[in-house]
Amino acid sequence: MAASNKWLMSSVAYYLDFFTVPLFIALALYLAPFDAGLALLGLLAWTLVEYSTHRFLFHSLYRREHWTHHVDVLAYIGVSSWKTSSTFAALLLFAWYIGLTSVFIGAVTGYFFYISLHYVMHRPEHWAYRYIPGLVANHDLHHRKGIEKNFGVSSPLWDHVFRSYIRAESLSTEEKPA
């Protein structure tokens, strides 16, 4: 499968979410009282969104674009920050309107955790890399050609629930890609 340049972006566009997401969280905290239980519900919801998006969109509908990331993990490839920021702005307004701002905070915090972890997973020289060996091993296995497993980046929870989790040591020698 040929790689696609559709999701390539500038370094500014790639790193922008690391600045805009905390601003959305701060704005949400300003707008309404914080409820830790609802924030945890939002965080759990994010993990399901992350898993579903990765498995059912990035590995089917946007397979070519996502495969470009698998080919060059350090390239500035991803969903544009203007799309995520527009989505977060609309969701924040909606959450504020219906009184679920803390759910929004939990979900967006989950997204921030996801982009941060994913960034570190592909950079062994990063100081935090050594603290996430299990997540790194899961994600490295996911990047192997022919392995359509381990779609959860920040958590393997939904991979366990939907039976798409696999450990490297569980692959037999005939199953291991060359």
Q: How is this structure best described in words?
A:
This protein is an all-alpha fold. The chain has a domain at 11-130. The chain is built from 8 helices and no strands. α3 crosses α6. The two termini are 18 Å apart. The mean pLDDT is 87.
Radius of gyration: 17 Å
Task: Summarize the helix and strand pattern as letters.
Answer: HHHHHHHH
Helix content: 55-70%
**Biggest sheet, in brief?**
none
- Total number of helices: 8
Query: In angstroms, what separates the terminal alpha carbons?
Result: 18 Å
SS-based class: mainly alpha
Q: Classify the beta-strand content into a percent band.
A: under 5%
Strands, count: 0
Question: What is the overall pLDDT average?
Answer: 87
Q: Given the C-alpha coordinates, what overall shape results?
A: globular
In short:
This protein is an all-alpha fold. Helices cover 62% and strands 0% of the residues. It has a domain at 11-130.
SSE layout:
Layout: H1 11-15, H2 17-31, H3 36-61, H4 63-71, H5 81-98, H6 101-121, H7 133-143, H8 157-161
Helix pairs in contact: 2-5, 2-6, 3-4, 3-6, 5-6
